[in-house]
Amino acid sequence: MSLSVDTGTRPDEGAEPELSVAHVVEVMGRVRAAIEQVIEGKREAVDLALVVLLAEGHLLVEDVPGVGKTMLAKAIGRSIDCSVRRVQFTPDLLPSDITGVSIWNSETRDFEFKPGGIFANVVVGDEINRASPKTQSALLESMEERQVSVDGTTYLLDAPFMVVATQNPIEMEGTYPLPEAQRDRFLARLRMGYPTPDAELDMLDSHGSSDPLSRLGPVTDAATVRGLIRAVAEVFVAPAVKHYLVSVVGATRTSRDLRLGASPRASLQLLRAVRAYAALQGRDYVTPDDVQALAVPVLAHRVLLSTHAQLARRSAEEVIHRAVAEVRVPDRAPAR
Questions:
Q1: Of the spans 53-57, 64-68, 134-138, which averages the highest pLDDT?
Q2: Where are the beta strands (DSSP E) in the chain?
Q3: Where are the domains of the chain?
Q4: Which one of 19, 77, 213, 279 has the fewest CB atoms closer than 10 angstroms to its CB?
Q5: What residue stretches are annotated with the ATPase AAA-3 domain (predicted)?
Q6: What's the predicted TM-score (pTM) here?
Q7: In this structure, what are the phi and psi dihedrals at residue 259, rounded to the nearest 5 degrees?
């Protein structure tokens, strides 16, 4: 992994071919098919992961142990010909293990930077909520600004850059809840859920005698993904749809069931996500339906329930659904 001091440009950026929404559908279709060789019966989870990748976001995968969280994260990395690193979060993990550290080199008589686990295109953070809050916070700068600052020097991270973090529910033994600022850096959260009986039977056949990850090869590369990201950024969003998106996010701030609504960062990330979602559907424009489809995975992990909602045993997902339903939907026809 090459490093560069902050010069205003990202590593590996250069003259790359211009891609379109049609390329997004074709290339991501291959990536989806590759991932589904490993993850059976989870099309919605795979598609959400691809949305996060194209939106230049980060993904939080939360569920009980053994349902394929880490397998999904690894499959994403394996399907793209780029650098992948896995960081196993444990209570004794140090922030320098993630960001890197400067070490004295006796031969050159100077400090030499040793990059940490964050220096990769796809970073798999396994069981992120088993590390201390201090170590978890070491990811904040990297996830938001795509750079690492160590000993006064800033190192830029290669594009694309995506953190796929897995966590067990906070009721599990030995876990620390993620701080609000940390959760807000993740574009979306998904829950894998248990497979259907048919999918579990298929898993016994495909996983029982060998590891399917070992047979999974890359179907695209980092340069192509960067081109797809640029194509997604050009997807048209009508003013009425933007107003609707802002109204949906604003509804979380006025809901009596929430004591903390979604942040302005949530609005920006929801906009990027709906553009990627529309592109995956083969459209070069966004509709209100796209906003409705992604409101829960993008917003639910950022909000805090009020005491009233907790006593009523409401979930954040239920509250977001209700808030979205109360916002007036504009005309779905795109206006250019």
A1: 53-57
A2: 59-62, 80-81, 84-88, 100-105, 110-115, 122-126, 147-150, 153-156, 162-167, 188-190, 220-221, 258-260, 304-305
A3: 21-211+222-226, 235-325
A4: 213
A5: 58-187
A6: 0.87
A7: -100, -10
